[in-house]
Amino acid sequence: MTTLVQPVNDTKDPIVRDDLALNAPQKPLIMGGGIVGLIVLAYLLATQHISQSLLLGIGLLLGYTLFHARFGFTSAFRRMMAVGNGQAMRSHMLMLAVAVTLFAPILAYGTTLFGGPVAGYVAPLGVSLVVGSFVFGIGMQLGGGCASGTLYAVGGGRSVMFITFIFFIVGATIGAYHLPFWTEEMPAYAPFSLATSTGLGYTGAWLVSLAIFGIIAWVTLVVEKKRNAPKMAPVPSDSGWKRIFRGSWPLFAAAIVLALLNGLTLLTRGQPWGITSAFTLWGSKIASGFGMDVASWGYWQGANAAALEASIFADSTTVLNIGIIIGAFIASAAGGLFKFTKITAGNFAASVIGGLMMGYGARLAFGCNIGAYFGGIASFSLHGYIWGILAMAGTFLALYLRPLFGLSVPKSSDSVC
């Protein structure tokens, strides 16, 4: 019989925490976050296409949803591998099921709300993908959060995640510098789409995708039963309508909202939700400011060259990321949860290493847990499934590395938060 105990206290991890009891709303912080959001919105309306303003709003909703539901990818993979708890993984499958249902007609129609072209994330299959996703899987378990987790943890004030965030950018920049080696000199196969590479079309690919998600959800239930996995501990929440503003939201509800917002992102900018390309842009601009000839890198040739020369506010991924941070900040303040947390030598070192590995891995793997895993699978790309498998393998290895930095690993006798 499994004994439920207090969840492991890991203040390093923005997703797995035991100090989430709601407090009075931090009204000055809420107002401050709102003012910052309005300033950014006004600037975008004055200088950019209207789509950028819409994306800022989508980003705010993404950040709010991620924080309120504590919707994680890092913790979901770790729970599954460590103790066999698949509740969060099943929420992933629901999210993906809703996403492919939205993406199929949008990709088939091929036009955004503003008349531009639409394209999903469909990437090559090669050594770069395998190495990058495996490295990312290790990095997110050491860094304490994935790409989306890092952003919303920064918005929530988790101090050590600022370290992860900084080195995530550094790693993504180094990865961009090295990318031609991995993509041009290492073996690779052409991109493979369940919709366009098989003759199934988007309707057939949609049906196949739903079947895959159902099988994965069923497997998680079998594993849970076999391993007698502990259940996830409930996160404190307000009641009634207040729960909308002062979480916690159910994972399944958040999964549906995230899928809807990703579909809206695709309709607005012609690409799914992404995160890490902006990190590469920010790091490359900083490196250029220090005199490095960033423009000569292979990554910044062709279609990417214009982004390096333009304002970061012209980059739609940057705008989404800013929105996520502000949205998470407002959500944390609404729950009275914004506060800076303790940094130790162990979690500092893990953040540096994890951030570097995630940034580097994301560039090699054509995206992170959002761009490659969520966006890739939702776009019917085989590379998204490969990313998930290899990131899970990296997670398994990281379970043996986390204790070296003083980071916890769930045990079968622990409740899972």
TrEMBL record:
Localization in the cell: Cell inner membrane
- What would be one Pfam family of this protein? Sulf_transp
Its main subcellular localisation, reduced to a broad class, is membrane
How does the entry describe its membrane topology?
Multi-pass membrane protein
How is this protein annotated for GO cellular component? plasma membrane
Q: Which InterPro entries match?
A: Sulf_transp_TsuA/YedE
Q: Which UniProt keywords apply?
A: Cell inner membrane, Cell membrane, Membrane, Transmembrane, Transmembrane helix, Transport
Spans through the membrane:
29-46, 52-73, 94-112, 160-179, 199-223, 244-264, 318-338, 345-366, 372-401
The similarity comment for this entry is: Belongs to the TsuA/YedE (TC 9.B.102) family.
Give the protein name, as stated in the record: Sulfur transporter
Q: Which organism is it from?
A: Psychrobacter nivimaris
